[in-house]
Write a structure and sequence with these properties.
Blueprint (H helix, E strand, L loop, with lengths): L2 H14 L3 E9 L4 E9 L10 H5 L4 E3 L8 H13 L1
Antiparallel strand pairs: 1-2, 2-3
Length: 85
């Protein structure tokens, strides 16, 4: 695992843990793929806790942090993971 990838996962896990359940490297069932971060919010969310990120995680989300802008293939891969869940 790349250092940036591990840092981003750990950082987001620490930020989001007070708001709900965070799963790092969640496996996707269709083939051998993993979601970097799968987040399920607590029943009583606090959207003001983390500003924009807090509003993004009001619902269950998949987060794939990238160091650089993702290319088309990486975007398609993320969409495939989203549609598999």
């Amino acid at each position: 695992m790349k250092p940036h990838d591990q840092f981003a996962k750990n950082y987001l896990e620490q930020l989001l843990s007070p708001l709900g359940i965070v799963e790092i490297s969640k496996e996707v069932s269709d083939e051998t793929r993993q979601i970097d971060l799968f987040f399920s919010p607590n029943p009583e969310p606090n959207p003001n806790y983390l500003g924009l990120l807090g509003r993004i995680v009001l619902n269950t989300v998949l987060i794939e942090p990238y160091r650089n802008p993702p290319n088309r293939s990486e975007i398609r891969n993320c969409l495939a993971k989203l549609l598999t869940i």
